[in-house]
Amino acid sequence: MNDKKNYGFTTTILHNDRQKGIEHGSLHKPIHTSVAFGYGDARQLASVFQGKEPGFRYGRQGNPTISALEDKVTKMEQGVGTICFATGMGAIGAVFQALLRAGDHVVSSAFLFGNTNSLWQTTAGQGVDVAFVDATDVANVEAALTPATRIVFVETIANPRTQVADLKRIGELCQARGILYVVDNTMTTPYLFRPKDVGAGLVVNALTKSIGGHGNALGGSLTDTGVYDWNQYPHIYENYKKAAPAQWGLAQIRAKGLRDFGASLAPEAAHHIAVGAETLALRMERTSSNALALARLLEADERVAAVYYPGLATHPQHGISGELFRSYGSLLSFELKDGIDCFDFLNRLKLAIPASNLGDTRTLIIPVAHTIFYEMGPVRRASMGIAESLIRVSVGIEDEVDLLDDFRAALAGC
Ligand SMILES: *Cc1c(COP(=O)(O)O)cnc(C)c1O
User: Fold this and answer.
1) 58 in a domain, yes or no?
2) Domain-located, residue 24
3) Whole-structure pTM value
4) Could you say which of 277, 294, 309 is where a domain stops?
5) Where in this protein does the record say N6-(pyridoxal phosphate)lysine is found (predicted)?
6) Are residues 290 and 350 both part of a single domain?
7) Do 285 and 272 belong to one domain?
8) Which residue blocks in 78-220 are alpha helix, DSSP H?
9) Mean pLDDT of all residues in the chain?
10) Distance from the CA of 270 to the center of ligand 1, in angstroms?
11) Ligand 1, CB cutoff 6 Å, lining residues
């Protein structure tokens, strides 16, 4: 399949490995477990090391199985290149490690994945100042910019309260100011939304979540969309400026972030994720429609105090979400009315499983303040809009009728 036809999202993923020809006509890219790569000619080894010809050297910096997945993610995001990491946090950590220095300033959405929030607290102690803003309005981002701002960081749909960042306007602002715009696309995935379309320079995906999709492998990725002009970035070392400027960012991240920090994706995990990704579009269609049905059921129930899901007309960013995303995703959260014990409610569910992952095929449910946001404490939780009774649901691909029945029965017991 070497024609240049513009195939759709799923066709492209399914047939991408074959573009480069696979060993023995295998239909899947095989799992390469070798740590080292040998060359018949020692000069060739040297020239691979010096970046003068392509090739693999040592597993920490990549291998053929991981490269095949990187290619797939690049296609999904329509970028110029991707680097995979052991986890989503490995990918986000590499951005900071490779691109930021003491004295730099970052503007970040205040509505963040808990561990990203924790990481930002750490970088503050390392001399990188982070301003947390309500990124649902570009004006807050603009007001927080300083001459030292290097990066603006947002998530598409925030986990767990589902606030949607003012993605397009923030992109315009970053482009006008020459600031690197980093978008964590985990909640939407490249099937629902391509951050490149709103001017993002780097895209984070926690492959662990919907892209892998089966809760059986950890992984993360960073994709360079080609939108950002790395000539504008002040901290690119001369060493990484050998190729065209479009490659500078990833060259530095692969060396300073992946190679030196070592959060390398395992080849077995890369294989699981690549297989999972083949059905990403199908799963996102199903989880989105299940999530909308569940959100509507919860919203109509008198025992429920609030429901947060961008697909509901009552969601503050419902309109903008409809313009930006193909559908509204698999994540929702809700609060039960005062006096209803959320643990008793969770224990009555038979299908939804109390567990902390998301983007799995199975519906997972978690009381946020008592678990994933526990370490943060009540003050910071309140500033992020996390009520003590908030319950997050990562909606799976179960049959809709079974899923709704499960919640109906559990609510009836309240
Ligand atoms: C889970 C998640 C991450 C981190 O991914 P891991 O693979 O668990 O390290 C980052 N961002 C978002 C939005 C996530 O949901």
Assistant:
1) no
2) no
3) 0.96
4) 277
5) 209
6) yes
7) no
8) 88-99, 114-125, 138-144, 167-177, 189-192
9) 95
10) 16
11) 87-89, 113, 116, 155, 159, 184, 186-187, 206, 208-209, 218, 220
Mean pLDDT of 346-353: 97
| CATH code for the domain in which residue 333 is found | 3.90.1150.10
Q: Which residues make Cβ contacts (< 8 Å) with residue 80, sequence separation at least 6?
A: 74, 224, 225, 226, 246, 247, 250
- 39 lies in some domain: no
**CA–centroid distance, residue 391 to ligand 1 (Å):** 18
Query: Which mutation among 115, 187, 193, 371 tests ligand 1's pocket best, with the greatest number of atoms within 8 A of CB?
Result: 115
Q: DSSP secondary structure string, 315-362?
A: STTHHHHHHH-SS--SEEEEEEPTT--HHHHHHH-SSSEE-S--S-SS
Q: Is the pLDDT of residue 92 over 80?
A: yes
Tens of pLDDT, residues 140-168: 999 999 999 999 999 999 999 999 999 99
Q: 117 and 265: one domain?
A: yes
Same domain, residue pair 295 and 392: yes
In a domain, 94, yes or no: yes
104 lies in the same domain as 237: yes
Rounded to the nearest whole angstrom, what is the distance from the C-alpha of residue 159 to the centroid of ligand 1?
Answer: 10
What is the domain range of residue 357?
281-412
Phi, psi of 109 (to 5 degrees): -60, 140
- End residue of a domain, out of 251, 277, 303: 277
- Determine what percent of the chain is predicted with pLDDT higher than 70: 99
